[in-house]
Design a protein that fits this description.
The protein is mainly beta and 172 residues long. Helices cover 14% and strands 38% of the residues. The longest helix has 13 residues.
Amino acid sequence: EAEFLINVMKSMKKNKTYSVGLILCSLCAFAQGQMVTKGVLSVAPNTLLSVVSDFRNTNTGVYKNDGEVLFRGNFTNNGTFSHSQISNGYTRFEGLENQKMSGTSDAVFNDVLLYNLSEQPAFQLEGKVVISGEMDFNQGIIDSDNFGGSMIFNQNAEIINKVFSTGFFNHS
């Protein structure tokens, strides 16, 4: 299986054809584990990237979302994580288990959907998240108090579907 993936990648190099979708689909088919970004990963407008396992952006990773990204597992950002100023980058956290949001660097999102029906609090915020657009608290509680994280809303950011309860959200 791994040999097949290597041959596909060699063939793509010979033909000067690069298909991130094919590579990512091949990786998902042959390996179970996390998606790790060590270089540049850019999600173009009108593109959907689904990450079904954990996602880790390393300190050398540069990630930009100008399309739509779905995270099913834990999220760690130790590198550059952003969107362009003219995009409508949309990020969905839709886990089937509790999800950790961690990292040593700010994760800057445009629009975000939180939807997780797991035992609450479904989201454990250990890192710093910055929202530039719309934050949709659809389903799931974020716990930052017990995990040392923070969520910052830029000046024009909006919050929708908010439900305030103890420990859910502290806006200062």
